[in-house]
Amino acid sequence: MTMNFLDFLFPRRCVSCGKLGGYFCRKCANSIHFFDEQICPICAKPSIDGRTHIKCQTSHTIDGLYSAVYFKDAIKDAIHQFKYQQISDLSEVLAKILVYKFPTHLIHFDFLCSVPLYRSREKERGFNQSFLLAKHMGRIWGIPGTDKLLVRTKKTVPQADLKKEDREKNVKDAFSLSRDINLTDRSIGLVDDVSTTRSTLVECAKILKRAHAKFVYGIVIAHGS
Ligand SMILES: [Zn+2]
Ligand SMILES: [Zn+2]
Question: Which ligand minimizes its atom distance to the CA of 20?
């Protein structure tokens, strides 16, 4: 087997078990568990196409949620390495997993907007993982990805470090529009890597809907606790 020079310099290992060869070995790739049924982003009960149930809607509610896979096993390891070991290459692989699950975007989006990081956190990490994902998905779907709509105005604690009941409070009023924009008639896909309580997506969607967005759908690679 000939190895290309880059692989020789930077050998790829399975994100989960460490086997040499690629970011997912066959065994760990087979452990990835896709969602059969989508859920309502508000009550987390089954819902067709992840649409928010009518009874769950209040004012400025997110319209729905697409989740590709369960947040566990190899995917949990992949997202962890992507974010904390700064393996930004993984964004392309993760975006492909989502596009595999949703080959055609079921709804027309004008933009894919990433969930923003607080400025100092993005600096520290060197990238916003959600924006990288939005860009890769956008390239495949032919939709522009943007990180210019929203800003995080509060330095929140990472949601993963909090108990479920504290997560909603943590992100409350943590976001705002980056500038005075009117999103009338715009349909927006709101992209994040992982969601557990969906509070971040719900909060970001609220800001976009207040700016008159017609339609805001969450799009996450992984969902789970
Ligand atoms: Zn493996
Ligand atoms: Zn519901």
Answer: 1
Residues with CB under 5 A from ligand 2 (ion): 40, 42-43, 53, 56
Q: What single-letter DSSP state applies at residue 53?
A: P
Ligand lying nearest the CA atom of residue 54 = 2
- Nearest ligand, CA of residue 65? 2
What is the spatial distance between Cα 110 and Cα 85, in angstroms, rounded to a whole number? 32
Q: What is the distance in A from the centroid of ligand 2 to the CA of 147?
A: 28
Map out the domains of the chain as residue ranges: 1-31, 32-223
Cα-based torsion angle of the residue sequence 7, 80, 145, 181 in order, rounded to the nearest 10 degrees: -150
Q: State the distance from the centre of ligand 1 to the C-alpha of 22, rounded, in angstroms.
A: 9
Whether residue 76 contacts residue 110, with contact meaning beta carbons closer than 8 Å, is answered with no
Distance (Å) from CA 79 to ligand 1 centroid: 14
- For domain 32-223, give its CATH number from 3.90.70, 3.30.70, 3.40.50, 1.10.287: 3.40.50
pLDDT in tens, 80-101: 988 888 778 899 999 999 999 9
Average pLDDT over residues 110-114: 95
Beta bridge partners of 152: 175
Each residue's pLDDT tens digit, 144-177: 999 999 999 988 888 878 888 888 888 888 999 9
